[in-house]
């Protein structure tokens, strides 16, 4: 194991909380008048008093002409109106009570109990991520088992399980680095960045098994910090990664997030291995090094999705490149029909504070607007003080942002290129057009998840209710934007299955449309169900309660 030895004492300590007064925070969020405005009770109306704390910003447009005091509340499923009356958001932008952008929560010491996993799952979590850089296989197995237990008990919700195969750094008095070639890969003059630049060291000299550094920007070096050595460290799948991968196979996880993928060959190697094991685990590549950027297209083609790993990316490239690459990777993934996750620092301040910074809120909104399938919480839920609040904020911000997105501005120009001339592609496109024009949701039946994923990439304005007879597919679909995966046995008769699906939507309160309202039904995909009775088709049906 290599070591990093600091040659002068570490300066200061990690930034302490920035002194923001928590008590001056209001727990009410302001929103535009047209959006879920609640009128205050009679008492406030009679008294004509407005209780506003100092420095509150009041959007006067929320007040009616009769001077009724209004209280503007955060977006939540309970208070969303069924129909969206604000035409300013675009005629195709229908309300969705169900959040479309999915939330990946890293599970760690703050959340690895049954109680917290249940709460996170009920609050906002769609994907539980385990970072293999931290903890051991036993502790990760416990979390996996808890998520599986939740999935088995929950009738209407499924949480996907993602293993992040990365390895990190540990520290006694001088830092140990669990990357064997570290000493060979760095040279005098290189900058080593801790946690993406929170601290930095300049390499001065090295011996056979240690690297001597001078502290440039100091701080408190805690255990399991992250070390980047500019572009010197180019790591392929290491033996330790394979241990993690085998662990994932044994525990039947849904996704791997694979670190430091330089080219498509690494992904292919992993995919071949998984095929050999006879398991169906999807591979998400983490874009976190400059080397991988020239190969974006081929790497994404080989994989099932991508993660914009902004921490490492920002450490290895000029930091101002990160938002540009984020947009580029999102667009590319969407146009290629692949999942895309935006990760790291999204609500970083909530690791220690109960409320986010405005910049963090904007960051989530930008990722949602750019069309990410999912946004990710790392330290916020792994070891933060307010994991449930952080998940709640992410949910609220995503939901609010989604309500302002017009579908017309959303579709990447080259969407469809990956499936050119594919009949399913055509069906996904036209089903989306119908769903958007009518402002209604879509129902799709899928054995493999393919058609639901395809539809998701067109981003129809309504929810995609994906019925599947495979629990594994239900879990996988939890990652995809706009997809609400529902497990249901399929009958041999298509009509009976349609009726069961529509009844399920109503009776289990999945739908926000009322009885008698319409829904688009899509029957297509790589393995169409009920091929003998019908081929591909799109129907518009009324939601009718079963007699
Ligand atoms: N299973 C775990 N056990 C202990 N601590 C954990 C665990 N998972 C996460 N953490 C803590 O939460 C922090 C944030 O998690 P995160 O997944 O972002 O890891 P990271 O090493 O900081 O970065 P990266 O995401 O690039 O791997 C970690 O640095 C670690 O301190
Ligand atoms: C998630 C991750 O690994 C990163 O941001 O670097």
UniProtKB/TrEMBL annotation:
Pathway the protein acts in: Carbohydrate degradation; glycolysis; pyruvate from D-glyceraldehyde 3-phosphate: step 5/5
Q: Does the keyword Kinase apply?
A: yes
Q: Region Disordered: list its residue ranges.
A: 6-25
Biased composition range(s): Polar residues:
6-24
Cofactor section: K(+)
Q: Which UniProt keywords apply?
A: ATP-binding, Glycolysis, Kinase, Magnesium, Metal-binding, Nucleotide-binding, Pyruvate, Transferase
Q: One Pfam family of this protein, by short name?
A: PK_C
Q: Does the keyword GTP-binding apply?
A: no
Which stretches make up the Pyruvate kinase C-terminal domain? 428-524
Under Enzyme Commission nomenclature, its number is 2.7.1.40
What's the domain of life for this entry?
A: Eukaryota
Q: Which reaction does it catalyse?
A: pyruvate + ATP = phosphoenolpyruvate + ADP + H(+)
Record InterPro entries: Pyr_Knase, Pyrv/PenolPyrv_kinase-like_dom, Pyrv_kinase-like_dom_sf, Pyrv_Knase-like_insert_dom_sf, Pyrv_Knase_brl, Pyrv_Knase_C, Pyrv_Knase_C_sf, Pyrv_Knase_insert_dom_sf
The record ties this protein, via Gene3D superfamilies, to: Phosphoenolpyruvate-binding domains, PK beta-barrel domain-like, Pyruvate kinase, C-terminal domain
Which part of the chain is the Pyruvate kinase barrel domain?
Answer: 99-166, 172-390
Give the record's family classification.
Answer: Belongs to the pyruvate kinase family.
Task: Give the protein name, as stated in the record.
Answer: Pyruvate kinase
